[in-house]
Amino acid sequence: MDSADTDWDGVRLHVVTGKGGTGKTTVAAALALALASGGHKVLLVEVEGRQGIAQIFDLPPLPYEERRIAVAPSGGDVYALAIDPEEAMLEYMEMFYGMRRAGRALTKMGVVDFATTVAPGFRDVLVTGKTTEAVRRRGKDGKRVYDAVVLDAPPTGRITRFLNVTQEVAGLAKVGPIKNHSDLVHGVVKSPETAVHFVTLLEEMPVQETLDGIAEVRTAGLATGGIFINMVRESLLPQATLDAAAQGRFDIGDLALGLKSAGLADGADATSLAEGLAEEIVEHARRTELEQQERESLGEAALPRYELPLLTDGVDLAGLYELAESIRTQGAA
């Protein structure tokens, strides 16, 4: 990006991963909007074939082509690409061998499926290759076509192998187009222009998978980005009240008196209502305490953290822009 006042100045490929159910695609889409804000051009790439981007932006299924899908706050455009491995292979064959027509014939014969089944990593190379090509691409004026590319990547448990698969495929071909292609992909993925961001919830399993994923990515020599803590619930109670409730020092009598003075209940009804509310408060306090413990665990990774609010009405376009603004104001974009 051109701005020098963001946490990821110089990063042009933002790889977003996370455990299933953490809202990985939603965060990737919001990050793309945030990065495009202010007049930038950003490409949002999907690789898992779920058409998640189309669903989030309330669009028909996306074809295998780059098309504008949203205008970012303060101007700027978000383009999207849903990568189809078969089409990527045809493009690859035309680019390196001039064999697109022959490639279509091979597709009809099932050779493409055969190739990606025998060498499963080759499918990932096609996907990462198309993504990194968008990162490197320049227009006729010599300028980068996209200011940034956001990749909605596979889940955390598969991310290191997905990004490192070019090394495995390169080992099968020591020279020629495949080797050159793998080297180009590897050069982008391992460069300072790439960062792997992690999406998590303040729950034990997603946090542990995030920490494990960060360790694996670092061991593989890939650059870690930030941690996006999604669906954070805002606490509406003072910390002193939460501490008292968590420690079993919450006074139901005081709560009943408060309900009476507010005119919300009277007599036995006030006591009964206070008891029910007290149970909810204690549960909320304990959950808040556990969430704070998970925050402290994430702090061990020593990465920037960004907290995104829980959207009680679900993720619609308005909510997506709200998340993008939260990402931007926290300095991630």
TrEMBL record:
Pfam families: ArsA_ATPase. GO terms for molecular function: ATP binding; ATP hydrolysis activity. It comes from the Bacteria. Residues 13-175 form the ArsA/GET3 Anion-transporting ATPase-like domain. This is ATPase. It comes from Nonomuraea glycinis.
